[in-house]
TrEMBL record:
Protein name from the UniProt record: DUF899 domain-containing protein
Organism, scientific name: Sneathiella marina
Pfam families per record: DUF899
Highest classification ranks of the organism: Bacteria, Pseudomonadati, Pseudomonadota, Alphaproteobacteria, Sneathiellales
InterPro entries the record matches: DUF899_thioredox, Thioredoxin-like_sf
Length: 233
């Protein structure tokens, strides 16, 4: 660990108060950014996609349950993969306990992956997860929301991820998408975020940002090279 300056309690308090002022400004900016996000225009969803679920085939409109808002986590799990993505699993470890809290604010949360329901159920059981997780293997949902890519997509240079086009190195990538449903049952897409936009949904990373070493990834071969499935450390 890099040595930090060792100071008196009084000097530390002055430094902490200076940082607090910056933290408060960041919080104000984040609140304003959240307002702008919530004010984005909507796009009507023209296809009520059909998913494979443990309750049988269910349309996108049915994934809302009794709520008017739906948050989808695009969980990387390709149809030929042995297990789900370890990075997506790192994020998904945060979800079990929040489903009821989100529901209390008119929000349903569901993970969606382009693999079989059998694969999803087997991996979910291994990870001891209970949040809703459905299969999009038999529809184009993942492709339409720019998290799954065909071989042609990946090599053409025209594939879109995180709102820019270019070659894509993987056939599956992560993201969050938000949908709303009005009183008539019409569906709308209001927001999607990808890449570093997912950071704020990971509690562990936010906690690591509090400690002196931070995420401690700067000397690794690649970001999250340290990461394992939670039963594999």
């Amino acid at each position: 660990m890099t040595s930090a300056a060792i100071v008196s309690r009084e000097e530390w308090l002055e430094s902490r108060k200076a940082l607090l002022a910056q933290e408060k400004e960041f919080t104000r900016q984040r609140d304003e950014l959240s307002k702008l996000r919530q004010q984005l225009p909507w796009v009507e969803v023209s296809e009520d996609y059909l998913f494979d679920t443990n309750d049988g085939p269910r349309h996108l409109s049915q994934l809302f349950g009794g709520h008017s808002q739906l948050v989808v986590y695009h969980f990387m799990y390709g149809p030929e993969w042995d297990v789900g993505c370890k990075s997506c699993s790192f994020w998904a470890d945060n979800y079990n306990g929040i489903v009821a809290h989100l529901a209390a604010r008119d929000v349903s949360l569901v993970a969606v992956s382009r693999t079989s329901l059998d694969n999803i159920n087997s991996f979910s059981k291994r990870m001891d997860w209970s949040f809703p997780w459905v299969s999009s293997l038999n529809n184009r949902f993942n492709f339409d929301y720019n998290v799954s890519f065909s071989e042609e997509d990946r090599t053409s240079g025209h594939a879109s991820y995180n709102y820019k086009s270019g070659p894509i190195g993987m056939d599956e990538l992560p993201g969050f998408s938000v949908f709303s449903k009005d009183e008539t049952g019409r569906l709308f897409h209001s927001y999607s975020t990808y890449s570093r936009g997912l950071d704020m949904m990971n509690t562990a990373y936010n906690i690591l940002d509090l400690v002196p070493k931070g995420r401690d990834e700067q000397n690794l071969d690649h970001t999250m090279a340290w990461l394992r499935l939670h039963d594999s450390y």
